[in-house]
Amino acid sequence: MDNLYQNRIHPPDKKIFLPSIGTWSQSWYLLDGRSQDAISLAVASGRPLLVRGLPGTGKSDLARAAAEYLERAFVYEVITARTEPQDLLWRFDAIARLADAQVKNTGVEVAKNAANPANPLHYVSPGPLWWALDWRAAELHLEKDCKTPVQRPDQSIKIHQNQEISQQDRAQKNGTVLLLDEIDKADSELPNSLLEVLANTGFRKPWSEAEIKADEGIYRPLVIITTNEDRELPPAFVRRCLVLSIVPDTDFALWIKQRARVHFRDPDKDTSMDDKRPVLSENVLNQAAEKLIKDRKASTDDGPKPGLAEYLDLLRGLQQLAKDDETEQLRWLKRVYQFAYQKQSTPN
């Protein structure tokens, strides 16, 4: 009854094409109705969306799907144990400044437009929150003030081989989606430090009176934060977020096959000549899912069990090993599935 009620109140699932951007290759994502509603509320309320779920359930790609769903620019930062709160706002290249100061003290002549150690703004580069809040201000800072190499968001999204979309155009028209991936890897100081910035949607530019602040309305960024639950997040931080848990609301085998089908065309049903997705039969999807479910039930380790990510890895491999040959794909499946699924235990 609960699943039927959920299916009735949420919108239909959407198959979202994810264009390549930076090191992210093109892919597909099944944006279910619950996720669509969570995204809509996060945009309307201005609250960050905290996405919970086991590793490999598509939390990071949800942010990419949200960017395409809303036609926004996509900015991302993978959080590590070494990520400092300031890194999300701006970065300061102290080493470059010291080196330039030492060169200047030697009396060596430098280029007229070179960085000046007396001006700290020459060594400041925008962080991901700066880009997400005000893309134009970040570009102006690089043009006028920053004199050192910087790490910046990808400037374009590659839709097709010869077609690209400007990220800046998207940001200025519809705003941005900022992914802060795996925030549980950082110390609790980092999520706590975000509270004021996210509440005010802005911060002060260093060594300046200027404010880096999002415009009202559609330009307010959608911040999506993922966690694998490796470390408990501060309660004050969680309270200021909306929370979406990615968990199967139906039979697990059916859940993973539904998501696999957006990546692979069914040769018996998807017959459009415009559909360029690789082909995998329903039989291959079923047998690969059966082996995954069997391995999940047999696993006695405390680590993560094989899930959607492992399932998709295996299917991609089968499609490459024996393109358009179901019989050969099934032979390969028997030979190689354990390499994708059985990762927790070392065989005797």
Give a nutshell description of this structure.
The chain is an alpha/beta fold and 348 residues long. It has 13 helices and 13 strands. The chain folds into two domains: 14-91 and 116-245, P-loop containing nucleotide triphosphate hydrolases (Rossmann fold), CATH 3.40.50.300; 252-341, no CATH class.
Please describe what this structure looks like.
Pfam families: AAA_5 (PF07728). Residues 45-252 form the AAA+ ATPase domain. This is AAA ATPase domain-containing protein. The chain is an alpha/beta fold and 348 residues long. It has helices at residues 2-9, 33-45, 59-70, 94-105, 128-133, 135-144, 167-174, 189-200, 235-239, 252-261, 282-298, 308-321, 326-341, and strands spanning 14-18, 27-31, 49-52, 73-78, 90-92, 124-126, 156-160, 163-166, 176-181, 202-204, 211-213, 222-227, 242-245. The strands form 5 sheets. A 5-stranded parallel sheet has the order 4-9-12-3-13. The chain has a two-stranded antiparallel ribbon with strand order 1-2. It folds into 2 domains: 14-91 and 116-245, Rossmann fold; 252-341, no CATH class.
